[in-house]
Structures are given as structure tokens and as C-alpha cells.
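pls design
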């Protein structure tokens, strides 16, 4: 049966009701969605796992029922629109599939999951048509909140929260000293940890703000102002929260302040902030409560009436080809061999000797899925300075085995180590300072070798990985980390630089570890 038989009965043919047309298109859409979710089930399950197990994304569990409710709000008006195949919707699916391919090649889960959601959006656009898409434009946009995002902003938000706390402490005449994300007062030593960055509430507030902006406002100016408030108020509130904890600790005890923070701020403070934002926005709501979200008759009347160029079978076949292409391409490249040596060992370094690894506070970089990991300590024969060397080697990168990513690298956020600050970057590398209870302070320089690239930049690693996976070539990836504990005010930078110079070219060392020399 061709699409004309579905969308518009031929002259003299029996009339097909709008309900029947909708049912046929919805069956096609259900089939398309099921096939896409099956083909990309690994990415879909990864999203669900993040929603359920990562507290930052727990709010995503509400997005699916909200989407259902948004569609139900528009149901009566959507029934006035005639669905039809819209060929240009395949372009959106193509863009989504290409984005998924880039994410898969570069090892970026956000791009893979965004590509999956966009493919589902493309199925709606293609199989229901432009007119129906106009009626569903906000639910389609809102579905993007299904994609977990925001962890990359945690260090920035930690610094913002710490600096705001210092400002408020100054206003309260409480003497304080800041060192990265650590604040010292006469009462104690406080860390603006990842959990204190406010990222959980900020992301949830952005999703909530977008929903309220659509439901309660018609003016784009008012929507924009409400969204600005939905972003800025949580950030400011989180700074007040951190300051409040330190202020209470200053006048009571640290233990009391910590308990008060979890009970009062965790349950009541942000609920108050949410209510405050709504109360401020309430007088400016300009959408009537009984006003329909869309005008189905107007949308249908203004829609293009030309016959679709593809039959439903052709549209489904085209969609299948588009979404299958990146899977086939990555499967072919994954079959390439990238052998590693069976065993590797830490190198001998002129002027330095291997000694027992006895850190003041246990430290081990995190590289999930690495084929080889080494960690050892060296002592300078001339002055006794000690430096640690860690090496991780991958035969290839894939989902769950990326050399850079959240939680990977210089420290494991599941341990007591915390990021403190970024340090001046060495040549072809990156450097951070991390802190453990004590406090124990450690500097870490990180170098990554992918193909011909030696870098400390996570973005550069992703680009080099993308190039290797899309175009073929050596898939091996190596991380080399030079680290030392801070034992005096001068810091360990001089010892680490001396060790790196004695170690020789890091790209050569990395290639030897990967079996490429």
C-alpha cells in the first residue's frame, strides 16, 4: 500500500477516517522506535543506569512520564492534524546517526546518547510529518533532558561555590583562607566537594524551568528571564548553603554543622528556593490555565498538502539503512587488531633508583578496563626527592574502557582523594593538585599518547581517538602520569620536572609500552 492510500484516499475511494490514519502512522512509529532501541540497547541501558544509580540524574526518571503528560495535553488538538510521511525528517535521523558515530569513535557517551534520542525524534518527525511535529515541538525538545549531562561542569561549580563562600565569610567577619576548593577557618578545614557543587539541583532546576516556561508563559522575553533565574538562583543558593554550613560550624561544631547541612539544606533549603523562584515568577504568568497548548486546526490548515514522496515501506527502509550504517562501520573497524606486549615493566631512569611504594595516603590512578597498569616510586640519587610513575595501556578504547572520562585518570572520585585546583601545564601534558585527608597534597602531571598525538588535553585525546577509529590505524592508547607528594612549601614541581627530563621522551616511552617500537 502506498503512502497516498494512507494519507489521502484516492478520488472515488472509500474515505479513511483520521483515527484510522493516526493508528497506521502510530503503528509505524512504534515499530521504528522499537527497532532503534533494540539496535542501540547498550546506549539506552547506559542512560537508564545513570538515571537510576547516579544521583545527579535521578530527575531524569521523571522526564518520561512528563513527556507522556505533555503529549496527552495536546491530544485533542493533535487529533485535528492529519499525519503523513515527511521525507526531510530522514535528514534529522542522518545527523543523529552521524553524531552517534562520532561519539562512539571518540568514546563520548554524551554524544552517543544524544544521537540515540535524536534518532527517536527523527522517527517521530519522519513518520508523523511536519504538521504533527509543529504540534509536538516542545515535547520533542524536552526529550533532550533524557540525556545525562552536566558532570563536566562540577569543577567550575566547585570553584564558584568556594569563592562565593569566601565573600560571604568576609561579610560575616569570619577569618578564612582558601586553597583551591578547600577553606580553612579557626573552627576547621572544609572542602567544597563534588556533592557540594550544586550540580544536581542546577540540572534539575534547568529542566524544571524549561517546563514552567512552556506551560506558564507565552512571551519569549518572560520565558528567557525565567530561565535565567532558574540557572542563577540555584548557583547563588548553593553558595549560601556552603557559607551557612561553615558559619554554623564556626558558632557550634563541625559535626553539628555537617548534620544540619544534610537535614535542613538537603530537604528544606532547595525546596524553599524552588518555591521562591515560582513565587517570583507567578505574577508574570501570561498563559491562561485552560488555554490549549496548540491550535490543531490552524496547524493542519497551514500545513503542506502535497503527497509524500516516500511510501511507508520506503520510509522505514531508509530509516533502517541510516541507523544501521554507523553500527556496521564501527563493527568493521572494531575487527582490526591492535596487539600489545604480554608483559610490560617500569623503565630504568638515569640518576634515579626504584624504591618501595609507600605513600603517606594511598594513591592509585583510575583507568577502568586497561590491559596493563603499572605504579612505582623512584628516588633521586643526588638529593633524595621521591616521584611516582604510573602507566596505563589500552589495546583499544570502547564503551567503559575510555582512557579519559569522568572518574578516570589522576584520582578516583570514589576514594578520599579530591580535586583541589588546576596547575600550570607542562609541555604536552596537564597538571592538577589533589588532596586527601590529613591534609595530604599531591601534584599529578598527566600525558596521553594516541596515535601520533601526545597531549594532556581530554578534548585532544577524544579527537585523536575519533581519527583513529573513523579512519583506521593504531588503536593503542597509553597514559603516563608523573606525581609526587607535597612535603614543603616549594612543592614537588622541581622534582617532577627533573624526573621527566631524566625519563626521556614520553611519546617514545608510551610507544614502547604499547608495543609500537
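designed seq:
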Amino acid at each position: 500500500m502506498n503512502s497516498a492510500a494512507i494519507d489521502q484516499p484516492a478520488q472515488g475511494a472509500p474515505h479513511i477516517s483520521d483515527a484510522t490514519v493516526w493508528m497506521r502512522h502510530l503503528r509505524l512509529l512504534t515499530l521504528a522506535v522499537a527497532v532503534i532501541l533494540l539496535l542501540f540497547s547498550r546506549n539506552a541501558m547506559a542512560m537508564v543506569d545513570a538515571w537510576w544509580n547516579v544521583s545527579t540524574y535521578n530527575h531524569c526518571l521523571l522526564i518520561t512520564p512528563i513527556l507522556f503528560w505533555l503529549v496527552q495535553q495536546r491530544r485533542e488538538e493533535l487529533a485535528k492534524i492529519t499525519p503523513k510521511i515527511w521525507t526531510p525528517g530522514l535528514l534529522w535521523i542522518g545527523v543523529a546517526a552521524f553524531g552517534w558515530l562520532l561519539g562512539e569513535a571518540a568514546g563520548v557517551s554524551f554524544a552517543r546518547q544524544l544521537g540515540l534520542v535524536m534518532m527517536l525524534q527523527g522517527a517521530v518527525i519522519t513518520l508523523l510529518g511536519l504538521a504533527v511535529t509543529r504540534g509536538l515541538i516542545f515535547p520533542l525538545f524536552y526529550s533532550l533532558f533524557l540525556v545525562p549531562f552536566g558532570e563536566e561542569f562540577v569543577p567550575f561549580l566547585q570553584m564558584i561555590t568556594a569563592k562565593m563562600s569566601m565573600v560571604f565569610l568576609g561579610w560575616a567577619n569570619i577569618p578564612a583562607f582558601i586553597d583551591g576548593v578547600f577553606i580553612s577557618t579557626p573552627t576547621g578545614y572544609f572542602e567544597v566537594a563534588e556533592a557540594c557543587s550544586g550540580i544536581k539541583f542546577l540540572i534539575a532546576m534547568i529542566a524544571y524551568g524549561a517546563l514552567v516556561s512552556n506551560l506558564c508563559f507565552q512571551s519569549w522575553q518572560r520565558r528567557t528571564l525565567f530561565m535565567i533565574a532558574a540557572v542563577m538562583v540555584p548557583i547563588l543558593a548553593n553558595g549560601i548553603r556552603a557559607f551557612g554550613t561553615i558559619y554554623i560550624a564556626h558558632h557550634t561544631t563541625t559535626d553539628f554543622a555537617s548534620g544540619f547541612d544534610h537535614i535542613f539544606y538537603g530537604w528544606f533549603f532547595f525546596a524553599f528556593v524552588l518555591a521562591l523562584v515560582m513565587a517570583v515568577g507567578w505574577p508574570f504568568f501570561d498563559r491562561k490555565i485552560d488555554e490549549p497548548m496548540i491550535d490543531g486546526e490552524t496547524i493542519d490548515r497551514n500545513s503542506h498538502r502535497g503527497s509524500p514522496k516516500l511510501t511507508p515501506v520506503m520510509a522505514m527502509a531508509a530509516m533502517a539503512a541510516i541507523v544501521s550504517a554507523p553500527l556496521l562501520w564501527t563493527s568493521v573497524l572494531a575487527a582490526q587488531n591492535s596487539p600489545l606486549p604480554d608483559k610490560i615493566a617500569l623503565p630504568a631512569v638515569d640518576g634515579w633508583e626504584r624504591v618501595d611504594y609507600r605513600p603517606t595516603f594511598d594513591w592509585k590512578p583510575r583507568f577502568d578496563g586497561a590491559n596493563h597498569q603499572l605504579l612505582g616510586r623512584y628516588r633521586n640519587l643526588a638529593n633524595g626527592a621521591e616521584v611516582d610513575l604510573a602507566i596505563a595501556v589500552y589495546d583499544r578504547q570502547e564503551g567503559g574502557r575510555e582512557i579519559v572520562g569522568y572518574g578516570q585518570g589522576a584520582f578516583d572520585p570514589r576514594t578520599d582523594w579530591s580535586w583541589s585546583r588546576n596547575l600550570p601545564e607542562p609541555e604536552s601534558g596537564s597538571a592538577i593538585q589533589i588532596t586527601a585527608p590529613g591534609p595530604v597534597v599531591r601534584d599529578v602531571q598527566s600525558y596521553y599518547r594516541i596515535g601520533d598525538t601526545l597531549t594532556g588535553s581530554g578534548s585532544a585525546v577524544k579527537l585523536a581517538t575519533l581519527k583513529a577509529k573513523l579512519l583506521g590505524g593504531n588503536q593503542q592508547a597509553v597514559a603516563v602520569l608523573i606525581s609526587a607528594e607535597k612535603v614543603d612549601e616549594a612543592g614537588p614541581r622541581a622534582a617532577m620536572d627533573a624526573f621527566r627530563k631524566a625519563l626521556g621522551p614520553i611519546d617514545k616511552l608510551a610507544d614502547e609500552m604499547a608495543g609500537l617500537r
